[in-house]
């Protein structure tokens, strides 16, 4: 859904919500018709419960890619923040040149 909507997760979420409402409406109508046409074979409550269950499964399956995208975006955002903090910390360090090139020069200075 996110690719079809240009990556806009808010629009994709709204689209998913509208589709879920529409599917549930049609499921209720179909359950009602089935119960009216075959009252001896199908109980209205059972038909409605089965319709709700089927629609719920379809909604869950259709929302999984959306949730995966949201988690992916959150991971990218967190990684970018960590990188920004790391780069900010490194740029704030001050390097002091004290004339000592390394441990061997420090030993020589202490001996003198």
What does this structure look like?
With 112 residues, the chain is an all-alpha fold. It has 3 helices and no strands. α1 (9-37) packs antiparallel against α2 (44-91). The longest helix has 48 residues, at 44-91. The termini are far apart.
Oligomer: single chain
Residues in helix, % = over 70%
Class derived from helix and strand content: mainly alpha
| pLDDT < 50 runs, ≥5 residues | none
Overview in brief:
The chain is 77% helix and 0% strand.
Q: Which terms summarize this structure?
A:
rod-shaped, 77% helix, mainly alpha, 112 residues, 3 helices
Secondary-structure map with pairings?
Layout: H1 9-37, H2 44-91, H3 103-111
Helix pairs in contact: 1-2
